[in-house]
Design a protein that fits this description.
Strand content: 15-25%
Largest sheet: 8 strands, mixed
CATH class of the largest domain: Alpha Beta
Oligomer: single chain
Number of helices: 13
CATH topology of the largest domain: Rossmann fold
Shape: globular
Structural class: alpha/beta
Distance between the termini: 27 Å
Radius of gyration: 21 Å
Number of domains: 2
CATH superfamily of the largest domain: P-loop containing nucleotide triphosphate hydrolases
Length: 339
C-alpha cells in the first residue's frame, strides 16, 4: 500500500479563554493519500479550520495546547522546530486561507508576494521567479496576468485576491494542499477552473488535498473521502458516495436535509420547506458529557446518549458492495448507526 502523505493521529487542540478551556478539537484521526482529496465538512465552530491551523503551527503558543501526531511524509509536524516548519511550509504543505483580505500584505504587489514565496524555497533568479509568478496567475484564471503581477491587493476584487492566494499556495508544488473555503468567494465558472487546476496538480505531482468547505456540491464533485465534524469531533467519515448517499449519523443526515430540493414543486406550486437542525452547536468550553450531538439529535435514544461518547464504528457501506477497502464509520448508536 502507498504510504499516506498526511497521517493525523489523536489530534487535540485546547485554547485558553476568559471563559475557561475550550476543547476545540478532540481526538481527530484521518489520513490523506497521494492524489487523494479529503473533504472536511461541518458547521462553523466545529473545529475544521483550527485543526489545520494546528497542523501548520499557526496557533498562538501562549493560548493553545496541541497534542497528538501529524505525520507529513513520515515527519511529525507537531514536533518540528519553528525553523523546520518554515522550510516545510511551501514545498511540503501549502495553505489557502479563508479570508484573502487578511492573507495578503496590503503594501506589497501580488507579484512580489509570489516571488518571495518562490525564492524562499527554490534556487532561482528574481526574473525567473517573476516569470513563474505570471504563469501561476494565468493558471488560476486571473485576467491579464502580465499587468496583475504589479497590482496591489486593494486593486483586485475579492475573487481575484482569492485566486492570488491560491497561486501562492501552489507556487512550490506542495506535497499536501490545505484549502480552507478556497472557492467561497468565486463564481461557479472560476470554481470549476480552480478545481480543475487542483486536480491537475494532483495527477502530475501526487498532491494530497484537505478541502474544508460548507459547500456539499463542491464536496460531491471533488472529494474522494468525507470527514464530518461536529463539536470538535469526527462524527462520520467514509467515501464520498457512502457519506452523501447513505449517511449514518443524524447530524450528517441533517446537513444533507438542509440542501435545497430541486425536485418538482408541490401541487400548489410551492417548494418544500428546507429541513433544519434545531438548536445551536455547543460551546467548546461546555461540551456535553456523552454524544456531542445529543442535545440537538431528533432521534436520540436512551440515557447513554447523554453519558457515553459513542466511538467511531463501522456501518453498512456502499464501498463494501463495490469491493473498496475504505471504511465507512459513524459515531452513533441510533438510526442507521454502527452495527
Amino acid at each position: 500500500m502507498t504510504a499516506p502523505v498526511l497521517a493525523v493521529e489523536d489530534l487535540r487542540v485546547q485554547l485558553r479563554t476568559p471563559r475557561g478551556t475550550a476543547h476545540v478539537v478532540n481526538g481527530l484521526d484521518y489520513t490523506v493519500g497521494p492524489g487523494e482529496t479529503v473533504a472536511v465538512v461541518g458547521e462553523s465552530g466545529s473545529g475544521k479550520s483550527v485543526s489545520v491551523l494546528a497542523l501548520m503551527g499557526l496557533l498562538p503558543a501562549r493560548t493553545a495546547t496541541v497534542t497528538g501526531r501529524a505525520l507529513l511524509q513520515g515527519e511529525d509536524l507537531l514536533a518540528m522546530s519553528p525553523d523546520r516548519l518554515r522550510q516545510v511550509r511551501g514545498p511540503g504543505i501549502g495553505m489557502v486561507f479563508q479570508d484573502p483580505m487578511t492573507s495578503l500584505n496590503p503594501v506589497l504587489t501580488v507579484g512580489r508576494q509570489l516571488v518571495e514565496g518562490i525564492r524562499a524555497h527554490q534556487q532561482v533568479t528574481r526574473q525567473a521567479a517573476r516569470a513563474r509568478a505570471v504563469e501561476l496567475l494565468a493558471e488560476v484564471g486571473l485576467p491579464d496576468p502580465q499587468r496583475a503581477v504589479d497590482r496591489y491587493p486593494h486593486e483586485l476584487s475579492g475573487g481575484m485576491r482569492q485566486r492570488v492566494v491560491i497561486a501562492i499556495a501552489l507556487s512550490n508544488s506542495p506535497a499536501l494542499l490545505v484549502a480552507d473555503e478556497a472557492t467561497t468567494a468565486l463564481d461557479v465558472t472560476v470554481q470549476a477552473q480552480i478545481i480543475d487546476l487542483v486536480e491537475r496538480l494532483q495527477s502530475e505531482h501526487g498532491t494530497g488535498v484537505v478541502w474544508i468547505t460548507h459547500d456539499l456540491g463542491v464536496v460531491a464533485g471533488i472529494a474522494d473521502r468525507v470527514l464530518v465534524m461536529y463539536g470538535g469531533r469526527c462524527v462520520e467519515d467514509g467515501t464520498v458516495d457512502d457519506v452523501l448517499e447513505r449517511p449514518a449519523h443524524p447530524y450528517t443526515r441533517g446537513l444533507l436535509g438542509a440542501l435545497p430540493d430541486l425536485a418538482e414543486p408541490l401541487s400548489d406550486g410551492r417548494r418544500p420547506d428546507l429541513a433544519t437542525i434545531p438548536g445551536v452547536p455547543p460551546p467548546p468550553t461546555d461540551l456535553p458529557a456523552g454524544c456531542v450531538f445529543w442535545p440537538r439529535c431528533p432521534v436520540r435514544g436512551d440515557a447513554r446518549c447523554e453519558t457515553e461518547q459513542p466511538p467511531l464504528a463501522f456501518v453498512e457501506s456502499l464501498s463494501r458492495a463495490t469491493g473498496s477497502s475504505l471504511p465507512h464509520r459513524a459515531a452513533t448508536w441510533c438510526g442507521e448507526g454502527a452495527r
